[in-house]
TrEMBL record:
Domain of life, source organism: Bacteria
Protein species of origin: Roseinatronobacter monicus
Family named by the database record: Belongs to the phD/YefM antitoxin family.
Coiled coil ranges: none
Function noted in UniProt: Antitoxin component of a type II toxin-antitoxin (TA) system.
Stated name of the protein: Antitoxin
């Protein structure tokens, strides 16, 4: 994977975008990694793989009996936990 500083990417944006079409580019800021830029095709493949993994994990949970029925009460409890976690962030 190629590495490029954020400053260089900013100054040479066209070259940066072209390079990201060929392979992922690791962006650094003050010599520490801050982001990875990938092509749209690579991103779509990564998203598809993540979805497939999620479905496979869900099916494995069902097969192993690690599921519970969603009720109005359980949904409200999960929503309250979600809101509490996000309020802290």
């Amino acid at each position: 994977m190629k590495t490029m500083s954020a400053t260089a990417a900013s100054k040479e944006f066209g070259r940066f975008i072209d390079a990201a079409q060929r392979e992922p580019i690791l962006l650094t800021k003050k010599a520490r990694p801050v982001a990875v830029t990938v092509s749209v095709a690579d991103w779509e493949e990564l998203v598809a793989l993540r979805i497939e993994r999620g479905v496979a994990d869900g099916l494995a949970d069902i097969d192993a009996g690690r599921v519970s029925e969603l009720t109005e009460t359980s949904i409200e409890e999960r929503l309250a936990r979600f809101r509490a976690r996000n309020a802290e962030a």
